């Protein structure tokens, strides 16, 4: 969020609150106000708006996904999973819902399910760079080095300025014993502000010594 948007946020909220007060049955207005409340950290109000949007439109998959994201952030994984599953029931092509379910499975250390869900999301929308990055991490944890490297390259291809994408590729290259290339991407991740694991740095430098 830019500084300008931060400065304008109170005015945006005031205007949207006015719209919702005038048209309380407007699903889009409730949904968008919920999102703006999310951005401003007014979480309980965001939950209220998104729940109202779902009540008004039980087919509002996007509201379900965003409400699930709030619960995920609060550590309410069961609620988050239920909402994303509900969104898929409404819209089987909801790629972000599958991606979120992958995060939940990963959080629960169910790596096989996480991979399955990430791959489902990518089968629907292969441009989701963050999902490629998450998939890279899980495949690395599983020791599936070739698949992790392919996913890491795809994540970086889609978002070349992502410090996480560079770090993920550095790790994948390390496990593929391509240490010089790994260092290049590690250094780029640092340059972009990523806090690289010191243990990884030490191990990589040892390999290059």
TrEMBL record:
Keywords: Repeat, TPR repeat. The lineage of its organism: Bacteria, Pseudomonadati, Thermodesulfobacteriota, Desulfobulbia, Desulfobulbales. Pfam families: TPR_10 (PF13374), TPR_11 (PF13414), TPR_8 (PF13181). It comes from the Bacteria. The keyword Repeat applies. This is Tetratricopeptide repeat-containing protein. TPR repeats lie at residues 27-60, 61-94, 95-128. InterPro entries: TPR-like_helical_dom_sf, TPR_rpt, Ycf3. GO terms for cellular component: cell outer membrane. GO terms for biological process: receptor-mediated virion attachment to host cell.
């Amino acid at each position: 969020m830019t500084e300008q948007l931060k400065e304008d946020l109170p005015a945006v909220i005031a205007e949207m609150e006015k719209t919702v007060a005038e048209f309380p049955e407007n699903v889009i207005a409730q949904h968008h106000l919920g999102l703006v409340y999310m951005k401003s950290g007014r979480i309980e109000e965001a939950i209220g708006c998104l729940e109202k949007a779902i009540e008004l439109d039980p087919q509002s998959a996007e509201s379900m996904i965003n409400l699930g994201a709030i619960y995920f952030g609060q550590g309410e994984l069961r609620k988050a999973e239920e909402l994303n599953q509900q969104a898929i029931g409404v819209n089987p092509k909801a790629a972000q819902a599958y991606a979120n379910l992958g995060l939940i499975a990963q959080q629960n250390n169910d790596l096989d399910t996480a991979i399955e869900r990430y791959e489902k999301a990518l089968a629907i929308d292969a441009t989701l760079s963050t999902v490629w990055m998450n998939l890279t991490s899980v495949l690395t944890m599983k020791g599936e080095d070739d698949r992790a490297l392919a996913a890491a390259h795809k994540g970086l291809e889609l978002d070349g300025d992502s410090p996480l994408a560079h770090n993920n590729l550095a790790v994948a290259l390390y496990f593929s014993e391509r240490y010089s290339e790994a260092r290049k991407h590690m250094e780029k991740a640092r340059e972009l502000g990523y806090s690289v694991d010191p243990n990884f740095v030490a191990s990589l430098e040892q390999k290059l010594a």
